[in-house]
Design brief:
With 539 residues, this protein is an alpha+beta fold. It folds into 3 domains: 194 residues, no CATH class; 108 residues, Muramoyl-pentapeptide Carboxypeptidase, domain 1 (Orthogonal Bundle), CATH 1.10.101; 147 residues, L,D-transpeptidase catalytic domain-like (Beta Barrel), CATH 2.40.440. The protein is built from 18 helices and 18 strands. Helix 5 crosses helix 6.
Length: 539
């Protein structure tokens, strides 16, 4: 556990990709239009004092530029103090900072001298700007705020996201805007403007719960594959109930040895949280997930908290999120979940790329233009074995390439959805419907197959009254390719993400398999290869 706390303290010490030079923001010009008469406070910092402070407190170039710009924008007005005392949002920031120190184990932000100064100044009813204690405390609070936002919201800057096959643009943080919002809102309603995706704080709460489980002693593992169902009795059922209770699936402790209806519900919930079919009956797959050590789960949570810090805050617009390890598409309308849809993603050998784009075209009765890799690996060998291969698969030569004609047997099904990208990835229908019944759905060549493509087409075209359900069905079965471009306001942002842990809308902590091995790569970068290898052996 100590190693995990140390790890988290280490991963939050920097920003930016390790192989890229960080761009230093330009320093804003000083706004001299702000004077004592036009400002909201009479407290101003002497420019010489500020320069001396910055010389005595060396900062990275980017932090120094943000710090200097903040005070230039204010013409050196105080931010954390008013003439009649300390600002009421100071405790809000300190609470945020202390919360971060608690869950991350990173005490680098704690400054006993600053704490003593705040305690002393909080008692005053009148603040003198020429008092060096007040001025230095003002500047230290600002410095701490920028350091805090860097650590808590921006992610580990040693990590090159592209090396981890993550091509969603990294979230850009503007701490000045956050600090302005903190002041404007007097430290209240933080969730409305805190610069982080809401999943981050939800996972943080679960992380603290798992820390507590680890600290108090992990519940006993079940060294069995024995099948238990409703009505069974066995001495192992007590262990099963105990572990499910401590993991949060069984509401109350239960020492009985009977597999009752409450245990059925708990087993189903755990199965659902683990991406298994919720049968309420134990199985080898169930025990495998149940016996994952708590410290391994903690690392998974930390890895996904890091990924979430790379993501923008959830937009209040229409957007689509596909979570690869979950094999699920989430469709949002004005920031609210409209519906979910099961999907099939790329196999491990043909992994779906993690990136973002903008969906702007629906293609009914599409041709399938066979990629060169599939042409060489599958089609040409098939033609050599059978001269009628193309005709049998409803295919034809199209110049120097092969394409499959529209129709029910087309590999893309009856409709596809384009969000132009350099990876040649898109959403599409499929004639292979049975694969959607599998719990693990990584079978495609990289594109994403949809279980309910017509539902997505109807949602995308819902603002165009000419596209009725009947017309969409007709276009899907016309046998003639038809492109429909969405009007610019109706184009939809798409995020293809990779999250093996998150908190669902019912407040349950979810875990999924690391289908492409991306978690393993993250572990090696964040924990170190030796610790990961040692843990793997222990498991």
């Amino acid at each position: 556990m100590k190693k995990l706390v140390l790890f988290f303290a280490l991963i939050v010490l920097g920003l930016g990709c390790k192989d890229k030079k960080r761009n230093t923001p330009e320093i804003a010009k000083r706004d001299t239009t702000i004077t004592v008469e036009t400002s909201f406070t009479e407290l101003f910092i002497d420019s010489t004092f500020l320069r001396r402070f910055m010389s005595a407190h060396p900062m990275q170039d980017s932090l120094s530029a943000k710090f200097q710009s903040f005070y230039n924008h204010r013409n050196y007005q105080f931010a954390w103090f008013f003439p009649d005392g300390m600002a009421e949002f100071v405790p809000s920031f300190l609470s945020l900072r202390n919360d971060y120190i608690h869950y991350s184990g990173d005490s680098s932000l704690y400054d006993p001298a600053l704490e003593a100064a705040i305690d002393s100044l909080s008692q005053l009813k009148k603040i003198n700007p020429n008092d060096s204690l007040a001025a230095s405390t003002e500047l230290k609070l600002t410095e701490q705020f920028f350091r805090y936002t860097d650590l808590a919201y921006s992610g580990d800057h040693r990590i090159n996201t592209h090396e981890l096959n993550w091509f969603i643009p990294r979230n850009k943080l503007n701490p000045e805007i956050f600090l302005d919002s903190l002041m404007k809102n007097k430290g209240k309603n933080l969730s409305a403007y805190e610069p982080v995706n809401r999943q981050y704080n939800l996972l943080k709460e679960k992380l603290l719960q798992y820390y507590a489980i680890s600290k108090n002693g992990e519940p006993a593992l079940l060294e069995t594959d024995k099948k238990f169902k409703y009505g069974d009795s066995d001495s192992l059922i007590f262990k099963l109930k105990n572990r499910l209770h401590l993991l949060g699936d069984l509401p109350a402790p239960d020492s009985s040895l009977t597999f009752d209806s409450t245990l059925v519900t708990a087993v189903k919930q755990f199965q659902q949280r683990s991406g298994l079919k919720a049968t309420g009956v134990t199985s080898p797959a169930f025990y495998k997930e149940l016996n994952v050590p708590v410290e391994s789960r903690i690392r998974t949570i930390l890895i996904n908290m890091e990924r979430i810090r790379w993501m923008p805050a959830a937009p209040a617009t229409d957007y689509i999120l596909v979570n690869i390890p979950e094999f699920t598409m989430h469709v949002y309308e004005q920031g609210n979940l409209a519906f979910d849809m099961v999907v099939v993603v790329g196999s491990e050998a043909n992994s779906t790329v993690i990136f973002s784009g903008t969906l702007n075209q629906v293609v009914f009765s599409p041709y399938w233009n066979v990629p060169n890799s599939i042409l060489k690996r599958e089609i040409l060998p098939g033609i050599r074995k059978n001269p009628n291969y193309l005709a049998r698969h409803n295919m034809e030569w199209n110049g120097g390439t092969v394409r499959q004609k529209p129709g029910k047997s087309n590999s893309l099904g009856l409709v596809k959805f384009l969000f132009p990208n350099s990876y040649n990835i898109y959403f599409h229908d499929t004639p292979s419907k049975s694969l959607f019944n599998e719990s693990q759905r990584a079978f495609s060549h990289g594109c994403i197959r949809l279980a309910e493509p017509k539902k997505l087409a109807e949602w995308l075209l819902r603002k165009d009254s000419t596209w009725t359900s009947e017309k969409i069905t007709k276009a899907m079965n016309a046998g003639k390719e038809k492109y429909v471009r969405l009007r610019k306001p109706n184009e939809v942002p798409v995020f293809i993400g990779y999250f093996t842990s998150w908190v669902d809308r019912q407040g349950n902590l979810q875990f999924r398999k690391d289908v492409y091995g991306h978690d393993k790569k993250m572990e090696e970068r964040l924990f170190g290869k030796k610790e990961v290898a040692a843990t793997a052996l222990a498991e």
